[in-house]
Amino acid sequence: MSERDRRSVALAAGLGLALMLAVIVAAAGIRLETGIPGLRIVHRVTASLEVLVVLWLGWMAWRRRAVQLAIALTALLSVVGIVGGQSPPREIAAINLAGGLALAAVFAWMLGKSGSEPDFRCISATAMGNRALTPIFLLLAVQLGLGAWLSIVERYSVALPIHGLLAVALTAALIWIARARAVFLALALAAPIAGFTALHFEYSAAAALAHVAAAALLLASTAHALGRAA
What we know:
Layout: H1 3-31, H2 39-61, H3 65-84, H4 90-113, H5 127-152, H6 159-177, H7 182-200, H8 205-229
Helix pairs in contact: 1-2, 1-4, 1-8, 2-3, 3-4, 4-5, 4-8, 5-6, 5-8, 6-7, 7-8
């Protein structure tokens, strides 16, 4: 792939990531009934633009597996959105949120992979950090999927303590391998703190929204670093 094509793919992946983060936060704001005006419009516009970005990526690099995965996830989310409508069942909403997070991770990985030289923007480039990236990312993906299911379908199920314990373990691991990166440290701490606040305080819509945003950014940052290391 030429340098020009690499830059074009990086631009498309960056746009896709930004749009998906906006979609995820807007969807969370709608579900939490925050009362913020224009969220549905933001959600629809950004989701539509993301489809255009995926089509652009498919036109430029349709042979790449990451692009094929992005196309498949976009198709899945489109079908789920059509089936669910404006008031989707809880299971559909959970699938939609998990799929959106997965698509954001794919865009972030592609953005990291398109870099000319591997380095860690958010995670310290140590040998242990490099080896820990893949299991940390997989655990983080499981944690976010579990969080999506708990927040929408079974908020107070028996899986909630597991979610909390895994959050503590992941936070400790992320802090250890990212101890030199202030932004990543802030995200690793903000996500569980906001989640705890949203769970235990009465007027917690703002904390829940912050939890979703921090968790999505944390997943994207880890996927970006993983792409850089690949």
